[in-house]
Amino acid sequence: MNWQNYITVDPSICHGRACIKGTRIMVSVVLDNLAAGLSINEIISSYPSLMPPAIQATMAYAAELARERVIELPT
User: Which residue, 10, 25, 36, 11, is CA-closest to 58?
Assistant: First the structure.
C-alpha cells in the first residue's frame, strides 16, 4: 500500500491537515471512525466519495506516523 497515492496535505484545504486526495475528508476523521468501531462499508456509507483503498491508505499513513513519532505515556 502506497498511502502517498491517496493522502495529500495542502495548506489551502482543511487548514493543511492530511486529507484524502480529491476530497475535504480528513484522515483523522476516517481514523476516528475506524477507532469507534465502524466498518469500512459504514464509513463509505457516510462518505460515499471514499473508496476502500483510500481508507486502507489512512491506516498505512497512521502506521507511518506511529513509526516516526513517540508519545510518552505515564508509567
Answer: 25
